[in-house]
Amino acid sequence: MKQANIRNFSIIAHIDHGKSTLADRIMEQTHTVSERDTKAQLLDDMAVEQAHGITVKSRTVRNHYEADDGQTYEYNFIDTPGHVDFSYEVSKSLAASDGAILLVDATQGVQAQTVANLRLAQQNHLVIIPVINKVDSDAADVPRTEAQIQKLDPAFENLEMLKISAKTGMGVHEVLEAIRTTIPAPTGDKTAPLKALVFDYMYDAFKGIIAYVRLIDGSIKADDALLLMAEQTKVSANSLGYFAPNMTPIGELNAGDVGYVITGLKDPQLVRVGDTMTAVANPTTEPLAGYEPAKSMVFAGFYPKDNNYNELKLAIEKLSLNDSSFHYSLENSEALGAGFRCGFLGMLHLQIIRERLQDEYGLEVLTTAPNVTYHVHLNGQTEPMIVNNPINFPEFSKIEYVEEPFVKAEITTPNELLSDVMKLAEKHKSTLLDMDNQADLIVLTYKMPTSEVAYEFFNQLKSVSHGYATLDTTALDYEVADLVKVEVDINYATVDALSFVVHRQDADKLTQELVKKLKVAVPRRLYPTPVQAVVEGKAVARVDIPPLRKNAAVSGGKKSISKKQALLRRQGVNKRQSAKNSIDLPQAVFNAVLELD
Ligand code: GDP
Ligand code: MG
């Protein structure tokens, strides 16, 4: 395909505004898939994506479009995830695009994520085509939506906007024409040294690491010797191709193309998203700007459940390759043994990684309470200790002061919900910095401790605003805070993996709530088990777990003799072991900490 006939574009939208539906219609109308093959939401094929109804990983699809001018065009559609927790992924997809369709649902109008995604697209210097969707719906208010979009950018003010129904296909042809006439063709030089943006990676059990690339200059042929510039990793282009939407091999990728390269590489540590790929024979001298690595906001421990540490390690390595905003390192707990300290963009991200481990690898993990990164200044030390694991939080007598991270939280909300949203923000130790209007929405800017935003705030915001408010956060600096470590003793032995760090003012309420939950969650034993929460050496809350009423020797007649004996043996063993080791810790015990609010 000659470069002038290539278009690389994304669709950006607020969640549920119809991005996946429009992508399906585009693939149908360009005959990439037949209508018969189109099950709804063709691209969201990861199990967690279907469960949450959101697109987590970016996808690319090459379509061939026979345009009204009689020529055939190559339309590379680069899908972006729709969720606020993944704006980092949105950015990556947009860096590989030249233009974007800004899709707005006429029944809802401009929403917070419409604005946030538009800003990301503008930062990437993309040409933007606003499109109004769902005009078939009785609830559609097209004039209002159009007026709202016009207010977003001076360039939209006198624009005749496309009005479509992604559901029925009405107006989709006009969108395809607008892509051709509005979005520029890529401008790279096919004969220059290879310079390709690696905007994503995927791990395949048989083929190894597959790089998603957008070629800026040069070309790649099968068997070319390639260089990933960040780590100076040499790879061979075992095979290459594009997605349509399945992997389709091709002999050559050229400047302007979007496609994949199967590298054969097996070690996830050697590759990195945002890297520049060049040719060993004739390398480029300047790598692309790449992306800022995503910073983890929330940390939690993942521990193997059934002695499958090695399996878990492999799965975590592969996931971190596929999701460059997920970080991990090894950690150890006395109670749980070897595990991983994992870093996430937010709680939804944590939940998704957990579900992917289960769906894609059949692995269940124990998850410990989330925390942020603390700067702990010890007596007589100049440099702070960086702590992102409560197990390592030092003893209180050694601490001079502690700092915690803050974020700037921008909440975009409809006017009607303003007071509910402000009340919620106040409960989370926030300081209002600014209040502004965007279209018919209010944008509130707060300064808040990262910990307040990272755990439950997002869900609570969704709940008080019925999904209409959105949140965008930017990291600020660290500031002094009055924090304490809560330790949990079960049967007078500290269970290190249950420790967590909180603001002192919340410690009382949280520990009372915690022991109440633990009373139900800690498995009963033959004798009463005391559980206490300890802050700075003092027990601040306590419950006694009542004993099991009957033991195996007298309970029920249904168990076989040998099962009864086994049970008795186990109970006997438990009694002789140290308290610490005999405690069976189901996820419910960790949930008691995870679900505190
Ligand atoms: P996404 O989250 O942006 O990918 O949104 P989806 O494509 O998943 O669409 C969200 C919901 O809106 C689905 O139930 C779609 O069937 C529905 N939808 C999408 N486009 C239209 C449309 O043009 N008209 C109507 N009435 N519903 C639509
Ligand atoms: Mg979708």
From TrEMBL:
One of its GO terms (molecular function) is hydrolase activity. It comes from Pediococcus inopinatus. It is found in: Cell membrane. It catalyses: GTP + H2O = GDP + phosphate + H(+). Its main location: membrane. Required for accurate and efficient protein synthesis under certain stress conditions. May act as a fidelity factor of the translation reaction, by catalyzing a one-codon backward translocation of tRNAs on improperly translocated ribosomes. Back-translocation proceeds from a post-translocation (POST) complex to a pre-translocation (PRE) complex, thus giving elongation factor G a second chance to translocate the tRNAs correctly. Binds to ribosomes in a GTP-dependent manner. NCBIfam families: lepA (TIGR01393), small_GTP (TIGR00231). The keyword Transport does not apply. Residues 4-187 form the Tr-type G domain. Keywords: Cell membrane, Elongation factor, GTP-binding, Hydrolase, Membrane, Nucleotide-binding, Protein biosynthesis. Belongs to the TRAFAC class translation factor GTPase superfamily. Classic translation factor GTPase family. LepA subfamily. The keyword Hydrolase applies. Its EC number is 3.6.5.n1. Pfam families: EFG_C, GTP_EFTU, LepA_C. The gene is lepA. This is Elongation factor 4. GTP binds at residues 16-21, 133-136. It is a peripheral membrane protein.
